[in-house]
Amino acid sequence: MRGVKRGTTSTEDRRNTRPLIGLTQGDPAGIGPELCLGMLVDRAVLRRCIPVVFGDAALLDRVAAASGLPRPRRILALGEWRRVQPHTPVVVDLQCVKGGRLRQGRISAAAGWAAHRCIAVATEEALAGRIAGMATAPIHKESLRLGGIPYPGHTELLAALTRTKRYCMMMMSDRLSTALVTTHTALANVPGLLTAKRIQEVIELAADALSRVRGRPPRLVVCALNPHAGEHGLMGDEEQRSIEPAIRAARKRGIAVEGPLPPDTAFLPERIEHTDAYVCMYHDQGLIPFKMLAFETGINVTLGLPIVRTSPDHGTAFDIAWTGRAKTESMRQAVLYAAKLAVLRDPS
Fold first, then answer.
1. Domain boundary among 260, 281, 300
2. DSSP symbol at 69
3. Which of 1, 108, 247, 249 is 20 to 30 A removed from 139 (C-alpha atoms)?
4. Is the pTM of this model over 0.70?
């Protein structure tokens, strides 16, 4: 995070203590652009950080006009951005939407390519230390694929861009947090991906992240894969073969972890109350309870990266794109959490 210049006033000092948080506009045909526009003028966000939107200025202006949101006040080209130290919200214009023919709510290669361009540049800026963290607006996986990007989502793409080997997706909220052992893969593939090494890795990533956030050792629960936790092998052996060895190894490292618990009872209210996070074996095992309890306030955090990255927990919402009807709370929480994590990582 950039330091405070000498000779600044107390007001400028206060501005400079706020971390610069990069926002990527997401799929330009979805609600991402209007979420980013909203964050540029969101009072709660502006009190905690300086938002820097990486996107297409012409597209953002077009979305602002269509949705009734304020147009961006300050726009910088990428080269210019790298020469200044902004104290107010800014849009870094990547000019990534070609020809002005993109339409809201439509899957397209152009939209996928533009989304990737914003993510790639913001990641480069985070790695270089020019922003303290990033919050990514939703992307559409099919548009990404049509745009020639061979990754199923943000998590895998960011791991590749940062050359990270140990990482996982974690959904976080005040009510419930879930870390995922597998993410964007077919359910049929999940059993073959469940190794003791991978499960232990996710337990450790979750424990490390939560210990920093909570300021104390967290209490984790690991979910089983099979009904009734496999019934000692009668309904599958993944628990005995992979999950239980990972839990034993994590306990030897001093992590407070329970399981494997049958998922049909793991998320009972009284257990949630005494659990800091759940380690779940596949995407929907963790996302269904999470979205039931925290759809509008929950966020996604990628653990293990050398940079801070968060995102809202919802998708592109093509059906309401560019209408001004998108709810901003999850994006707001993602930005605020990115600012919090940035300060925890670099308290200076």
1. 300
2. P
3. 1
4. yes
